[in-house]
Amino acid sequence: MIKNSVRLPTVYNLIELDQVDSTNKVAKVYADKGEDVYPDGTIIWAKEQTEGRGRRGRTWHSPPGNLYISLILRPEIPLKRAGEFGFIASLALSDSLGTLSPAGHEIFCKWPNDILLNDKKVAGLLMESHTHPTLGGEHLDWLVLGIGVNIISHPEDTDFPATSLRFEQWSSTVEEALTGFSKSFLNWTNRWLNEGFEPVRKNWLWRAKGKGEPITVRLPNETISGRFIDLNEYGALVLETETGIETIHSGDVFFGQDR
Ligand code: BTN
């Protein structure tokens, strides 16, 4: 284990590891050990993953040189509000990449929790949670936010095209991305604590790719096309389709009508 090669705000408890199977797997084991040992704000950071995981059971390309972190959070909120943290993290990621970005690059949020750089995916988020057994399973015990940012490499064989900072000619480092993300995540979490989800929802919508335009959403058993009109109060995607309004809770978004 290497200790403290970056300085983060003191609310975080940073654990640096060289190689793990998946930082989310490690974070879930640690989260279960309780908040005395691994408090809210613990970040597991690995230099490389051998079994990095993405949403919907996909593999996450995880060689050395990219950012792989999982945050352990212990917010006192009902399970149905857990998704709000995906949008807080998306804003923090887009802030940190925006600060590092040379002029002329476009950064957008893509529903639910991806970040696009010049219309290709540069970062993704995998959120996993556990509910409190003594509170009837409705309240969160812990939440793990796993974040991957392609800094020096990206996969070529993805359904949605991917990129990395290096491919787009930026010279930023993993350390800069982690420091920027952690500061901005703290700011947005404080805003959320004071003002609730609404400013997060509004800011995410301002930065969203495809708002007001035709999009296609792939669900496990069907594909729905429509106009992306809103994000509801729980972070679900609101689509206006030929047959009416559809509210979508999970799926893969593609831009344009016929994907
Ligand atoms: C996605 O867009 O599909 C989500 C990708 C999440 C990848 C990160 S890398 C750190 C953490 N550990 C994992 O195994 N996955 C997440």
Characterise this structure.
This protein is of the alpha+beta class and 259 residues long. It folds into two domains: 13-206, BirA Bifunctional Protein, domain 2 (2-Layer Sandwich), CATH 3.30.930; 214-258, Roll (SH3 type barrels). It is 22% helix and 31% strand. It has four helices and twelve strands, in the order βαββαββββααβββββ. The chain has a seven-stranded mixed beta sheet with strand order 1-2-3-7-6-5-4, sandwiched between helices. Strands 11-10-9-8-12 form a five-stranded antiparallel beta sheet, with no helix packed on it. A hairpin with a 5-residue loop joins strand 9 and strand 10. The radius of gyration is 18 Å and the shape is globular.
Topology (elements, then pairings):
Blueprint: E1 13-20, H1 23-32, E2 42-49, E3 67-73, H2 84-100, E4 107-110, E5 114-117, E6 120-131, E7 140-149, H3 174-195, H4 198-206, E8 214-218, E9 223-231, E10 237-241, E11 244-248, E12 252-255
Parallel strand pairs: 1-2
Antiparallel strand pairs: 2-3, 3-7, 4-5, 5-6, 6-7, 8-9, 8-12, 9-10, 10-11
Helix pairs in contact: 2-3, 2-4
This protein binds biotin.
Describe the structure in brief:
The protein is of the alpha+beta class and 259 residues long. Helices cover 22% and strands 31% of the residues. It folds into 2 domains: 13-206, 2-Layer Sandwich (BirA Bifunctional Protein, domain 2); 214-258, SH3 type barrels (Roll), CATH 2.30.30.100.
Defining traits:
SH3 type barrels; 259 residues; 4 helices; binds biotin; BirA Bifunctional Protein, domain 2; globular; alpha+beta
